[in-house]
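User: Sequence in, structure out. Go.
Assistant: Echoing your sequence, followed by the structure tokens.
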Amino acid sequence: MEKTVLMEKEGAVATITMNRPEAFNALNLALGEGLVRALEACFDPAVRAVVLTGVGKSFCSGGDLKAMKEAGAGNVSDFIRDLTKPLHRLITDIRLLPKPVIAAINGSLGGAGLSIALACDLRFAVDGARFKQAYSSVGLVPDGGLTVFLPAMVGFSKSSELLMLDPVFDAVTAKELGIVHDVFSQDEFAGKVHAQAQELAGGATLSYARSKELINAALLPHLEKQLERERQGVIAAAKTRDAAEGIEAFFAKRRPNFQGE
């Protein structure tokens, strides 16, 4: 079986790649735990910059809805309880890592995939990428720190719009919203991201680390509390009939009939 997470080092740059292309890099327990282990390895002083990306057409489509469905209606909350442990450890470690972490958004993303990208220090997207928060469309609520990062980047009003209306938006719109820093064509994407990572790895990494520490001083106390609130919220939401209906409707490719139950 192929590894769900690939990692390679080129000079002082480490690249972590989510490798479940057949599932659009949907987050399951193996992928979550693999990402945590890979990021832990980046605390090595020889690593001075990190790139996080995916294989195939998706960066990360979010939590693995197929695995949730297979768990059965009564066990979805247990699945999410287990999955949010490595997810929230990953989010915290991205922030605590004293070096730049770049999200190289190689394709579409949603749900926890969006949360992971927003936790990174810099985000670059390929021009074909599509963004969607996705949680509310299946009757769930955000996790992975989304309710901290998203309002900080796009503001209260736009966050409410994205979380309630759940539109799909493209990479150019994501740049206009301040979610991504730049958008590149498919042909130049890998080279541009690599060049930026190499520049950061050769830069004032101690300055970067201290700057990140200062940002975290304001962010982390709130983030840590909110991660636990989100975790309890999504576990509770997973027990509802609406969540069961949302997941069922997703696979049936129909509009969910939510009852507020």
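User: And one key feature?
Assistant: The longest strand covers residues 5-10.
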